[in-house]
Amino acid sequence: MNELTAKRNAVAELMRISPLADELAGLFASAGHRLYLVGGSVRDALLGRLSADLDFTTDARPEQILKIVRGWADGVWEAGIAFGTVGVTKRGSTLEITTFRADVYDRVSRNPEVTFGDSIEGDLKRRDFTVNAMAIDLSTKQFVDPHDGMDALRRKVLDTPATPEESFADDPLRMLRAARFAAQLGFEPAPRVVSAMTEMAGEIQRITAERVQTELSKLMLGRYPRRGLELMVDTGLAEHILPEVPGMRLAIDEHHQHKDVYQHSLTVLDQAIALERRDDPDAEPDLVLRLAALLHDIGKPATRRFEDGGGVSFHHHEVVGAKMARKRLRALKYPKQVIEDVGQLVFLHLRFHGYGKGEWTDSAVRRYVTDAGDLLPRLHKLVRADCTTRNKRKAAALQRTYDELEERIARIQAEEDLARVRPDLDGNEIMKILGLPPGPMVGKAWKHLKELRLDRGPLDHDEAVAELRRWAEENGL
């Protein structure tokens, strides 16, 4: 992308938002203040991808901002006012307006001593990367680019306005943001940025798990997450955030077809992403699927065994890996549902390999579907993505076999409504037939009938009653 294309993109994007921006700039000018579109909004305007969430900066202080926007905005919130930010909604857009900042960091925590500045140049110098350190004066439509952010954007390079060491000492989260921007935009960090990240990787431990998780999730949902992950691993940042991922470099894949399990896992991630839109072209990036693809083999280093004859085994690595995945995601403060879903996908990802050439009974197919539950579409994608063999004949055979399994699942689902597998008798019927009060024995009887349902398919009513009475007799009821 050349500079002329970037400026054309910016002009087109600014024209699109100009009524809103011009109105706001006019309000600030009338009050004697300047207003700038700034940071990521300018970067995205230059890339032709400006969203409805816009960032502005101004010389007006927070209380002055509030006076200016009240009566014009559809909504105003003050949650960030201690940091100089006033939030505004207007005609479907979300605007954040922040007073020029000239913060001083204590370099122990990442909490700055909030200090308001007096110039746009001073505000831009304290920003994370030069591609985010550009502004547009909305009164004059002039670019403000004191750190050559336009050139860095053209070259797709991430560099810092100050030295990387100063920038990362102020806020170590910026190291992870470098990896995130590599994943989202496909940019390459400048050599001095990589060097500083490598030397200072341990500083990320100053950042709370919640903030780390937010950046990591954005990285994983980016267009090129592999680039961000490789940067994290190569600089040592991953050792403090996802140590299990670089840990996979120690394990040679059992098929000896890949450099190591680490590279295999990155390939599975790439292939899972390619499958995300297989069934829905408009599907959003799937964080659970991507995390499961990345972490599906993290149990291999702990379960690696060298066998007689030179082979390598990883028995029960899916069980160990599921526990490890849940533990790591809990440490990163992921929501409970994400933790459970990723753990279950890791646990189930090997199940298909017992299918062989289709020897599974219908009972085994029912259990596969029931154990996966709502995760079945993701499990289909994960299992298919996990095929990374370079042997084209073997890869094609595996895909055909999984096609056959999906066809069997579809047939049995159509016949038996597997999504709602329940015993052929409900709890009330069980209590009535056996003369039981509510309690644990009713639950045990229900579970026994569900197991029969999975093994044998639907039972007619009389057969279900006979099986229930047989179970009751065996259990002394």
From TrEMBL:
Gene3D superfamilies: Beta Polymerase, domain 2, cca-adding enzyme, domain 2. Its cofactor is Mg(2+). One of its GO terms (molecular function) is nucleotide binding. Residues 261-382 form the HD domain. The keyword Iron-sulfur does not apply. CDD domains: HDc, NT_ClassII-CCAase. NCBIfam families: HDIG (TIGR00277), tRNA_CCA_actino (TIGR02692). This is Polynucleotide adenylyltransferase/metal dependent phosphohydrolase. It comes from Amycolatopsis methanolica 239. The gene is pcnB.
